[in-house]
Design goal:
Elements lengths: L1 E5 L3 H11 L6 E6 L2 H4 L10 E5 L5 H8 L4 E4 L6 H11 L2 E4 L16 H6 L3 E3 L8 H11 L6 E7 L2 E3 L8 H9 L3 E4 L2 E4 L7 E5 L4 E7 L4 H8 L4 E7 L1 H11 L8 E3 L2 E3 L1 H8 L6 H9 L3 E4 L18 E3 L6 H13 L12
Parallel strand pairs: 1-2, 1-4, 2-3, 4-5, 5-6, 6-17, 7-13
Antiparallel strand pairs: 8-16, 9-10, 9-13, 11-12, 12-13, 14-15
Length: about 350
């Protein structure tokens, strides 16, 4: 397989390393509009990896770059999902991405391509990262083991021990999600909640234990009710990153409402995005750790679904929870083979 990987930042660099180790993949083309920045993330010494300049908003450029490839992965901004999916159809190449743009906060834009991908005999695996992605897959695994399911709770923990504020993911995507009203699903209807509300003390597995979790936006809720019959789903996150973000939200720095300062109109979210630190490069991250600024942090991207795309026997556009049980099992086995611990616990309601 030849893979066109659009997006050469922190997540793209991890994906390219994982793909370059797969025997079934002969070449990974890492495409970015900023090659100078991309070289700080992508290991170009690897003979299976190369860099290419590409504007993801230009469908014709994507089509040209994707010729001869077997898969396009959008690891850049979700704002480009539709343009890249249009390019995938034109060049007849399978597609994968990590999250939705969700203009209305509840409708995944990728699903509108389902019939077109079906007709073209292509597979589009969407929202296939960690969260959304593995979270959706595990929700389906649980649902399939029960006669019926009334509620799904998704709880995350994002912990970072650091003396400075360091972004774990793309600042733009992070700020978009943190400033959005969290989505929930109750009795057949999607509802929007107040960000960082719904405080709950949740008991996480050790070494984390009990932590306060808050409502934040999770793409999972936009697709799960379409494939799992359930009455209620909610998504909450906790940990130092979320607690710090909650404090910033309380200061109004995530607000999109303008105010005037010294006669100039200022939008807090735009102001904060301008002054926020850039995502550290791998070399910068090493320096932060060696200097003791970051004592402990975990950053990961799961792309196990990629090598299973050729095995999907249905055409169309699907999130992970829509995959067959056999494909889901292969993905979970792949995770365990890479040292990921999957722990199941059962208790009475």
């Amino acid at each position: 397989m030849r893979v066109l990987l659009i997006g050469a930042g922190a997540v793209g660099s991890v994906i390219s390393k994982l793909l370059s180790k797969e025997k079934s993949i002969s070449e990974v083309i890492c495409a970015s509009n900023d090659l100078k920045r991309a070289k700080e993330f992508i290991d170009t010494k690897n003979s299976n990896v190369c860099l290419a300049k590409l504007d993801a908003s230009n469908t014709n450029q994507v089509v040209k770059a994707a010729k001869g490839c077997d898969l396009i992965i959008n690891a850049s901004l979700p704002h480009f999902n539709e343009k890249i999916m249009t390019a995938a159809l034109k060049v007849r190449v399978n597609y994968q991405d990590l999250c939705s743009r969700l203009k209305d906060l509840k409708t995944p834009e990728q699903l509108q391509f389902h019939k077109k991908f079906q007709k073209a005999k292509l597979v589009g695996l969407i929202n296939a990262g960690i969260a959304p992605g593995i979270t959706n897959l595990l929700a389906k695994e649980i649902a399939d083991k029960l006669d019926k399911i009334s509620e799904i709770k998704i709880r995350l923990i994002e912990d970072q021990k650091s003396s400075e504020f360091v972004f774990s993911w793309s600042p733009q995507v992070t700020l978009d999600e943190l400033s959005a009203r969290p989505l929930t699903y109750r009795n057949g209807r999607f509802q929007l909640l107040e960000p960082f509300g719904g405080t709950e003390e949740y008991d996480f597995p050790q070494p984390f234990g009990k932590r306060y979790a808050f409502n934040v936006y999770g793409d999972e809720i936009s697709t799960i009710p379409r494939y799992i019959k359930v009455k209620r789903i909610d998504f909450k996150s906790s940990g130092t990153d979320i607690e710090f973000s909650k404090a910033l939200y309380g200061l109004g720095l995530f607000s999109k409402k303008p105010f005037f300062l010294d006669g100039k109109k200022i939008i807090p979210l735009k102001f904060f995005s301008k002054i926020a630190p850039a995502l550290p490069t791998p070399k910068e991250m090493i320096k932060l750790i060696e200097s003791g600024i970051i004592e402990n942090a975990v950053f990961a991207s799961v792309v196990e679904g990629i090598k299973n795309i050729p095995k999907i026997d249905n055409y169309g556009v699907f999130p992970p929870e829509a995959l067959s049980s056999d494909i889901r099992k292969e993905i979970l086995i792949g995770l365990e083979n890479k040292g990921i611990i999957l722990d199941e616990q059962f208790s009475k309601a």
